[in-house]
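YM 10:42: Ribosome recycling factor domain-containing protein sequence, as discussed on the call
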Amino acid sequence: VPSLPLSHLPATLIKGKNDSSIYYFQSTKNFSNFPGLFKKKKSSNTLTELDKAQEEEEKIHTTTKTKSTTSTKNDESDPWDFSNLHEGIKERMTWLQSELSKLRAGGGFNPDLLENLRVAVQRGSKKTESLGDLAQIIPKGGRSLTIHVGDKTHVRSIISAIQSAAFLNLQPIQDPQEPTHLNVPIPTPTKESRDLALSTARKVGETAITGVRSTRAITQKKLRNIELKKLARPDDLKKAHKEMEKIVEKGINDIKKTIDVARKAIEQK
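YM 10:58: structure's back
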């Protein structure tokens, strides 16, 4: 339908009272009023509530993103931020204590080793489960313990797994009265078992110290990056280096002390 010029329309344009962006056609031939098809382009003063909400959301998103970026930048540019170094040393110490807890005083047997032993419950399958999930280990006092197997079909698999673990040096015996019970005599600690425990303690200690030095290298790289980008004064960087070395030295000394305590406990008779 061809459009008509406004001069040919039987109406006049009148602004709306409540919204100046709306024009109405007022009929000159007693027709009823109806909203016109012409609307002004939105200006900053005529944004709807939805438009304002969307703009505000975009501002918040941009501000949050900027703050996040600034925060990361500040962390990387602060030579005195040693939080990662402290956390790294703490993780190494936690790991060390966990490993040493597996070594009993005098080189004796630690039931945790038996709890964590992997058992192939199905012949020909690579899937394994920890012995602790299949049975209950009960110390009987003295130098023996009992294994209560939950499912009798797992008895043979558990016996085989224990016998195959040379580092345990255990020989479970099936109870003739209770087929799901395994009696396990614990051998007396020998010089060989003590020497093995001492060697293990020394190795895990060396691994923990190596881990601390690796964490130090990461912090050293960060300080070098700050130096190259000139994000801190040379004097501050020099002091930060000294502080880093103090933290690392303390961490290594704590590890050595922990190893020394474990070594003395193993050597006791």
